[in-house]
Amino acid sequence: MATRAAASEVWVVTDSHHPVLGQADRHLILDAAAVLEAELADNLPTDPERASAIVQQRLKLGGTDLQRRIGTAYQGIADAWSLGVTKIPAIVVDRRYVVYGETDVARAVARIDQYRRTQP
Asked: Which of 3, 8, 13, 115 could form a disulfide with 109 if both were Cys (CB 3.0 to 4.6 A apart)?
């Protein structure tokens, strides 16, 4: 794809309610942490001690895969914040250019490439 070749790095920042089509180097799904937290909290008893024990057990059973998923989810939030993303969906090119509201990576990259060609 010619438009993709002009961008050295493409990130998609979105959530599970705003799907974005196309290939990107990174997909930051901002509600992934909330989804994981909801899974861990699903059907917990009202007793705080029992609930805590169940969550600890779920974390242990999830092992390193769950730890990785949690780390990736929160890292995505931190990365989006550090890029200054203010709306979703957002397609970020080279950590410098952003197109908000576009759901097609190729179209966003083409718009950024067009802008870059007109700027000295």
From this structure: 3
Do the Cβ atoms of 83 and 11 come closer than 8 Å?
yes
Residues in the chain: 120
89, 102 Cβ separation under 8 angstroms: yes
DSSP characters over 4-34: HHT-S-EEEEE-TTS--BS--SEEEETTHHH
Asked whether the beta carbons of 12 and 19 are under 8 A apart, the reply is no
* Residue boundaries of the structural domains of the chain: 2-118
Positions of the chain with pLDDT lower than 70, given as ranges: 1-7, 120
What tokens does 118 get? 């007109």
